[in-house]
Amino acid sequence: MVTKLNTFTVFNSLLMILFAFLSAYPMWYILVLSFNEGADAAMGGIYWWPRSFTIGNYIVILQNEIILNAFKISVLRTAIGTIGSLLVTSMVAYALSRKELPGRRQLTIVFLFIMLFNGGLIPFYIQLIRLDLINSFWVFVIPNLFSVWNMLVMKTSFQKNIPENVIESVKIDGAGYARIYFAIILPFSMPLLAALGLFTAVFHWNDWFTGAFFVNDLQLQPLPTYLQRVMSTVEASNMISAGQMSAARDAGMYNPAAVTTKSVRMATIMLTTLPILLVYPFLQRYFVKGVLIGSVKE
Amino acid sequence: MLPLYLFIVPGIALVVMFNYLPMLGLQMAFRDYNFREGIWGSPWVGWQNFEEFTASADFWRAMGNTFLLTMLRLLFVFPTTILFALLINEIRSFAFKRFVQSMSYLPHFISWIVVVGFLDAFFSIDSGGANSLLGIFGIEPIAFMGSETWFRPIFILSSMWKEIGWGTILYLAAIAGINPALYEAAELDGAGRFKQMRYITLPSIFPIITIVFILSIPSLLSVGADQIYAMINPANIGVAEVIDTYVLRLGVGQAQYSMTTAIGLVMSFMTTFLLVLSNFISKRIGGEGIW
């Protein structure tokens, strides 16, 4: 009996180490390749450590104005999109959480119905055209300002976790609905807002789809969409030649001839992933909670 | 003083603009849409758009691929997630358990386009790690990313990589809620860890397994365009094209608005039907529904 248990424990521990390793290894593999000279990496055999270390790939991409601009667009849409979405969504959740809202039941149904039925991609696309949002920065922000899932989570939390007598007492002191919202509802719900905000921010940072289909202007493309372009050899070659023109200034810092389309691609992938990896430890504190709140209804 | 209903005005405006008006736009499915006359003025054509797409071999191919890929995904990801939740639960060291969990949740936060970047780096025909390994055994390089044979395995593998760890959260939470007295009693009766897993843990989380399964039925209709679109190329389109990418290619790409709206209408109705059905079943068997 005892030996059998130990066999299982050993086997399971090894399997779990493999599981953890496989979850993280792709990131490591790309990181190693992004710090290796492309020409050398093309010979293969690099798995654990750079063989011919260089920061040349990063010099090339960080000198590229399009990619810096894409980074800026990503940061802007993530910041504005997340704050905006938290505001709009929590305002709806707040109003629907109050029993005195006239027509509360009917209004709740108006919001919930969109979970059940949708018009599909093309009518949505036509609507974006008619609102003049195609080829506009705001296409990243405005259609994502309201999230019905987050609204439900917030509404449940406002009803459950904010004591009614606190709200009643400020009301007696003459506070209006706006005061209650800003002075009680929001401060009381900070952990929840942080959790939902992080999820929203990750969505905005990762979304390449909107940029690929609703925006043609290269100046408006966010980082993941630009990464999709860099996956094609043409765009990666453009980056290299642009890098070589300005690289004269950095003569000696790296060997331009060793930079390949593939090594530039690796550096771009890392640049796109890095912010996620950086916020991940903070994210972790919240997300298990976030998922569980999301799965529990009132 | 601001009236309370002012707080929902932005929200209402948004759902009207981006959800309800597009629903009205569905009538394009029965019209021959042109921009000048718009959704309300373009000529009616009856079922013509529906006849057009049902006669298209590409549509049926996309439909078949959609079902096949979502079924495969369910078949591989769903049971593996439960298995891994059980195995993570068997880790006795708290720190080790936390470590495995932290690592395994990470892929969920990586964008699909980045995941495809990983795949491309590792499986590419020139200097990809996979082909270097095969080369050691004298196997000729394989064009994994541009191949009909390898598309499905890579699709499944990447889906598993991205979602298994994250999917264990729900089950692990359910396991954490199991009464420890049950395990103590089983141990007194001489049940080993396998028996405890088999007769206590698994039956205890069975209700949540059932519910997760039933509620995932509607996802059989949609693969997720952002995953497929990042992987699709002319060499694998035969097995990779799904309804979502087909609608994108013909609708947004070639401006065939009316026909693709007709496809969207059919898909929307089927999704709604499955949502209502799965919610009904889930509630019927005593679980939670989505509403």
TrEMBL record, chain B:
PANTHER family: BLL4140 PROTEIN (PTHR43227). It comes from Cohnella phaseoli. SUPFAM superfamilies: MetI-like. Gene3D superfamilies: MetI-like. It is found in: Cell membrane. The keyword Cell membrane applies. This is Putative aldouronate transport system permease protein. Residues 63-278 form the ABC transmembrane type-1 domain.
